[in-house]
């Protein structure tokens, strides 16, 4: 009877371990959930650098960016014709632990992917991949 109970407990633990997302991936996706603005001064080649909107940016004529919400909602911030910021709603989905697919509701632009190069110390580095 003890062996059966032990095997049953091990089976449940194994099943739980395979059903839960990786803790590192979950933590990384959770840390994306905020508004990010483009720190174009820090870009490196095709890698774009973003910082939280609370960061003390140097003066700029405008900054683009985006916001990730935990429920898959996405807002892309573009520079508006009046030099303000214009938000475009959409959705984001994680394809894997380092690739996000972005789809904007207005369909003015095709879907694209953001490859997460790194995310640490409130600095997000991504590579945009057109589909």
TrEMBL record:
Residues annotated as signal peptide: 1-23
Highest taxon above the source species: Bacteria
Keywords recorded for this protein, A-Z: Signal
The protein, known as: Lipocalin-like domain-containing protein
